[in-house]
Write a structure and sequence with these properties.
Arc Repressor Mutant, subunit A
Length: 99
């Protein structure tokens, strides 16, 4: 593994970094917590509520005459994301007649 950096001044004084931290009551530097990469139940429920509101806003804007590309720009998502939501809601369903 890697070696700790040595401070020339502390070496001249015959001290270690831990001794100095202890003398001044400074805590040792802590590692940053790793991102968890998943959502707990509370966070999942909050996100599902947001998505319901988000989807109704997409529908309302589309029905108001906005193009999916403009809606995507307003929301900061891709145009395909907006189109998929609209398609799933049945806005792009075509009547297919087989003769």
């Amino acid at each position: 593994m890697g070696q700790k950096k040595k401070n020339k001044i502390l070496e001249k004084l015959g001290l270690t970094a831990d001794e100095v931290r202890t003398a001044f009551n400074v805590n040792t530097p802590k590692e940053k917590p790793k991102p968890k990469g998943y959502l707990f139940r509370h966070d999942q429920m909050r996100m599902s509520k947001r998505m319901k509101r988000w989807e109704t806003m997409v529908y309302a804007r589309f029905l108001g005459g906005m193009h999916p590309k403009i809606i995507a720009g307003c929301l900061g998502v891709s145009e395909e994301t907006v189109r998929v939501r609209l398609r799933a809601a049945g806005f792009f369903v075509k009547d297919l007649k087989v003769s």
